[in-house]
Amino acid sequence: MDSGNVAWILASSALVCMMIPALALFYGGMVGSRRILNMMMMCFGGASLVAVLWALFGYSMAFGNSAGGLGLIGDVTEFPGMGQLLAADEAASIPVILFAAFQLFFACVTTALVAGAAAGRMKFGAWMLFAGIWATIVYFPIAHWVFAFSSADGSVTGGWIASGIKAIDFAGGTAVHMNAGAAALALALVLGKSSGWPKMEHTKPHSRPLVLVGAGLLWVGWFGFNAGSALSAGQSASVVFLNTAVAASAGLLAWALVERLRSGAATSMGAASGLISALVAITPACGAVSPLGALAIGAIAGAVCSLAIELKFRLGFDDSLDVVGVHLVGGILGTLLIGLFATDAAPNGVSGLFYGGGVELLGVQALATVSVLVYSFGITWILAKILDRIVGLRIKPEDELRGIDLAAHSEAAYLTDEDPVELGSHHRV
Predict the structure, then answer these.
(1) Which letter, b or e, does each residue of 264-288 get, where b requires 16 or more Cβ atoms within 10 Å of its Cβ?
(2) 333-362 mean pLDDT
(3) Are 205 and 31 in contact (CB under 8 A)?
(4) Which whole number is the average pLDDT over 144-165?
(5) pLDDT for 54-73, tens place per residue?
(6) How far is it, in rounded angstroms, from Cα 317 to Cα 301?
């Protein structure tokens, strides 16, 4: 084993883990002051549940030998409990159990992303039930499609996207961002609109500084997310690291410019959103493009996503925190633009249309995109409908108006003279 590689993936895993509290801060600042605790709890609760499921059977479903060699799902009986990973494979560059830990946080972050579409109006218990089932029947299978590669000797069969059509997704544009965005859209449609949407004083962002802090921490964590996906501390990770940095910067500036031209002001919320939209778009492409290509992808994502967030008003769905406009649209852009900007000089070693590669790669990327979107949206919509019938997804209207923090958690983030004397079993004021 290579100690340098092991150290880098250990550090990268910690960086990806940091994205969970970073996302909680980012989402938490974007909601009203009486919704922040619930929003953060949805991130932490969903992520923690998925981590448990990953250890029990999720890793096996995602990275086990493909059942029947079909490339659809890993053999759930191969690594139950992950005890089989305790023995070291001395031929590997990093321990397999470290790779499993690294990928665990991808599953956690993806599930937490979906929570943004349900901010302030979904029962916490229903969310936890939804998160566990969703990860099992949507994320784990799609992770197998995209991240599980067949072994060189043919003894292990991987996913149909990674090893069949060989679409490029370096760090999760399809499995993470498009998947979460499509699921968020389906969940938002089933949940319905918040009370008073879209003109809701009680749901306006209560702390823009928290949004910027969360976005900044996400940016730092994203270096582990993307560059860690090289699975070694070498040239590939270095290229990806730089591409991630410049794309994010271009996205922030592009969103700010569009805002300035359209409304006369570049806002802090826009800057944070532009940063994240570009990071989403560069995630699948970070190993396929040059720094100039990364700049182009980041700028395109920042500009297009700034326009895409208005779709929720035109189409009438309440995507509270713009998971669709940023993650779904950004993921689609990044995945498809690989077909244009990919260069064989980059780590992935494949050329797109602008570098003489023809349209074949673009077609492959489009097939992967459509497949993930259709599966994620369809299965999530069915799951949400079933759970809504069985347990009910929405909180009571009166609880929604007074704030879900008190209703769901008996706590308030910021106390006022109007708050109840007792806010929880552990804290009394």
Answers:
(1) eebeebbbbbbbbbbbbbbbbbbbb
(2) 96
(3) yes
(4) 93
(5) 999 999 999 999 999 999 99
(6) 22
